[in-house]
Amino acid sequence: MPFASAYPGARIIGIEASPAHVDQGLEVVRRLKLDNVQLLCQDYESLDENLGEFDYIIVTGLYSRLQADAAQSLLAYCGRHLSPLGLLYVDYHVYPGAKAQEIVRDALLLHAHAAQTEAEVKASAKAALALFDDGLAGINPMGQALGIMARRIGGQLDSPDDTGGPTALSSSACYFIEFAERAAHADLSYAGDSQPLSEIALNFGQGVSLSNSLLTLGQPTTLKQQYLDFATCRGFRQSLLVSTSRSDEVERSPDLKRMQDLRWASGLHRLAGHQESDDATYVNHRGQGITIPDEATQTVVNALAHAWPGSLPYTTLLAVLMKRAGLDDAAGRSTLDGSLKLLLNHSVVHYSLDESPYDATADQVNRILGCVDFLPDPETPGISGFNLWHEPVHLHLSGEQKQLARGIAAGQSLASLANQAFTGKQVDGLQNGTSEIAALLHLLRRYALTSGSSDTWITLLRNGLDESAGNAPYIGLYVGALARRSLESRILGSDSNNATLAPALLNQANRMQELARQNDLRQAESLARHITQLAPAYIDAWEILTASQFNGNRLEEALQSALRMLQHAPADYRSFMLLCVALSRLQRTSEAITAGRRAIELEPRNAEAHSALGDALNSEHRYYEARRAYETALTYDPGHRKSRVNLCKVLIDAGNIEAAEIAAREAVDAFPTSPAGYDNLLFAANYSPDKTAAEVFASYQECDRQLYLPLRNKWRPHTNSRDANRKLKVGYVSPDFRQHAANRFVEPLLEHADRKRFELYAYAELTNEDDVTRRLKPYFDHWVPTAKLDDSKLAERIRADGIDVLIDIAGHTKGNRLGAFARKPAPVSATWLGYVYTTGLSAIDYIATDAIMAPAGTEDFFSERPWHLRSNLVYRPHQGMGDVSELPALENGYVTFVTLTRAIRINHRTIRVWSEILRRLPSARLVVDSSSYIDQRMRASLKARFAAAGIPAHRLHVDFRTPPWNVLRATDIALDCFPHNSGTTLVESLYMGIPYVTLAGRPGVGRIGSSLLAAAGCEDWIAHSEDEYIEKVIALASDLPRLAEIRRGLRQQVQESALMDEVGFTRDFETAIQRMFKNWCENEK
Prior knowledge:
GO terms for molecular function: protein O-acetylglucosaminyltransferase activity. By secondary structure, this protein is an alpha/beta fold.
């Protein structure tokens, strides 16, 4: 039916023996208003001889189901009705491969021998397939072939129509040479296979090719093919036949040079990488996948993916490949031919001689294929459809989705459709209803259910983005549509042409560039905005405008400017690169990755583009791919600061501490004034398993000397009143006044604050606010957004606000404002919680901690003076954590350990200790669950490290599930990491009734676990050596009755402890603030 819709001038006749199928088809014809389709219900052995001749005859899924005489009659009928220049397609099962089909069929029919109805036969057959899933002996020489055939028959049995019933078990096979002889008797000549590469012996190896040539020397093509079937154990053929009058025109073998005359299409799309390699894995909507190791074939597939469901000529693919890989014509053709052969061999590419129906450039509307209306919805059975590449479409669409698709075809705007799709729930801050529209658009494109020119697709998406101010998640689709149009126009590389400016405006543009080079972005932005209004096609102005908005953390504005830039420069890599950056920082990472990859396609040797892609990949925890992106950037520009710094960060996130330390040192040596570089260096030092406390602290002192001590010349006397008993102004500086684990500890302090004694200021380093932000705001008397203020301006604002005590709750974490603290904007400053260790800044007076985190004798490892609280923090549990479960080990019969830590905390010491525990408890299991292990590579790497320590993979379960409450309910004992302990997840474990053992180590981050246990009254689980750690864990795991008793009472114990005494902690903290300020007052006097 889609074919009839696409080619209204064609005459199509369909013949079917089932009246029900014909009636169903006629209803489709009626609803689609097709006047070029005729459907006939006829017996295949007595077909109407008055139908005339046909240019194409397709016999699919039928020949092997007929008895021999009926099959021969069908071939003869086709021979009589095929036009002189026509082509006949027939698919059928062949020996020797079909022998496996017969074995499977016989086994299934034996199991179904007592069935009385077709439904019973089908059910019994499906049940018997278990034999071929799990019941085949390893010594069965046909095991692989039987398994493949069983899966094929299983798929036929699952077919929604009745052809998937007993008919799937009733087909017969023949040898190819027999089929060819039968075709000859019907005045038909064999022309080849619809999968041409399957007929080339060399594709199966030199030995196969040589043997085939020797055995069939001087023999006809059909005999050559029969011997090739023997060699490959082929079981299915898709033959093309012509009238015998044309037999002399048929080539003896496929002419691969003709590939250059064809257009190509493929619906493959790229998946996230999962191997420790640069291989890329692609999959299409049919579930067919291919892993491609070489960059050239990846380039070809990426180009085809942009054009899908349209096609691209060979010459365009050749030009893309030559541009990207730097190949000459001969090398490019050879490489492209190899890539296309690979795709053909995997049946994941289509070809056509002329433009396909999807390539119509004159279409002014986005057409939706008629079969969409007849696809099944999740609750109601329907029929399978076909797209115009003759691919079966197995897709469920709801009635609402079909209605929305009809709206697209009718020309409705995406905004109106989004309102129609709105379910009453906002998704991730996106405009209402747009996520549903985006999902439908992706499905329609992926399954090739929409046709129309690239211009109409671009217009639809651009209008949708304009209507939503860029907030609708259509940008990935928009990038693909722009790429398709560029490919159709043969724009293969970055086109950076600027508009010609009048002399006066040109002077302003030169001034704008000079200001940008001087980093005077405020004035540069003003000029850039002026120029974009007068000369919107001048791309350099858009670039500087967007960059200035980034610099001011005005991300929504930057996104808007990047989209406007893209509209004026759809083939300039800078447009896509800036779009990638904006989307990454807005946490729209999937769209960011698409934009980043497009930037690299246009400018493959640009370090900035690779770096932007690395940021997007890192945001999705795709650490290996992100690392490769940064390394590639550094290959093209060894001095690229951002890539050098972020390479260290991604190594930290991936848990590669040794490489991270090296990369961090290289970064600070190359860029000694980079705060981000030093932040990474200090993180790496904190996590190093082998450094002493003194060595770690030395890195902090170096950071202070390089970055912050030089700012002492910015210090000025403070004029705050020295009355320590007055109402104090207290400022909290944080990037985490949003959905963040730190607020489990911050919010109780804010909620119980004595507002009569303290006037609270929030200095919020946020680019976006969320529900948590809105909940926290009322706790403060003043809310100051800081993202648009540099450190100097922030310090001046704090000083102008008259803050008495300024408290940092970020340390060296992302978004910190230590540069403002270094300017001493308040008389008293302190750090607490966020970093859990020293900042290293001599400008900060105190660190609020406890006697466990900073025990006596460790003061020399802090730049601040440790101020001991009764406990380091107070904890408020998440709502919805649920009840504590019974001890799983009582039912399982073995102990399950758990850690919810990030990868960076798992080092050679923790693996050695945990492996020893697992060896001594041979039935125990270990669950490692955190966002570090979203990436399959990360999971495999961790299992390999344990395997090297003698622990097999089946004893580990590595995953990421959020929230982790059910993970915790299914485990018995938590294991803390060292020398850098875990944090929030330890408190959550205790609250869920799960004890943990910790190793007290270096001050600060090496004693978090000990501090929490002490506050909860559980000091017995604190170890002071690795051997003691092991013994404490073994003791807990070896006494299940005691462990069950701990589980039942631990939550109440935590609730009654200092760890959850919100009011008590708040009063203690406020007393500390008062005394800190009093000390300043007395010292000043």
